[in-house]
Automatic annotation (TrEMBL):
This is L-cystine-binding protein FliY. Keywords: Signal. Residues 1-21 form the signal peptide. The keyword Signal applies. The keyword Signal applies.
Amino acid sequence: MKRFLMVTAVLGSALAGAAHATTVAEVKKKGVLVLGTDPTFAPFEFKGADGQIQGFDIDIARAVAKDLGVRLEIRAVGFGSLMPQAVTSGRVDMAMSGITITDERAKVVSFSQPYYRSAQVFIVRGGNPGKFAWPASVKGKVIGVQANTTGQFVATDLLKPRGATLKVYDDFAAGLADVRAGRVAALIGDAPTVADLKKRLPGQFEQAGKDLAAEDYGMVFRKGSDLAAAANKTLARLKASGEYQKLLNRWIVQK
Ligand code: ARG
């Protein structure tokens, strides 16, 4: 029995190794870098009019693949299963999805260096009809968050104890629809996505009150993978050549 278990364990990990690349060498061997992303998060990843997934993160991932000499394959994965299961299970080689670097997450995955400074903010209906403000008017309010995001984590830590009720959405767009309909007082989201929404849908949404928390985005890899170091090299190259700045100008609305 013991031997049988050992054999299946060895076989199991051999199969996992064959199916899922973890290291630079494995990615190079299979000739493709598989990126997992939740493409509902403009301007970092979203579907364009042509149905293609595009955005700031996608261009950075393309540069990482290019430096490795492989092609990039993009897989759409809902944020709830992307972080961290899609990465830890090896379903994808890498995840980029405006993913905030946290100590908790860093226990199970490896992050690149930070590549973008962001913040959690309150999104309300254009004109802020309820005069929502943070930290003043949280008590007794229903506030929306996206499942498994740092918005949910920070809301659980800071807003619940102050008497807010949280409404959890799998899909960020459903939360936005509820903001528009007045079903939640505010939705927590990432600052650059709010700036983008304001540009695309003028007058419909705005930020209310102060930023809740500053954070940094990182590229995500399987724990201990040398792909993280490779990604850092690409990031340094993009910054030194001015390409990083060009990508910022192309995709991200500057406040
Ligand atoms: N920055 C937040 C986090 O890491 C939210 C990211 C949501 N990204 C997305 N593509 N829906 O938890």
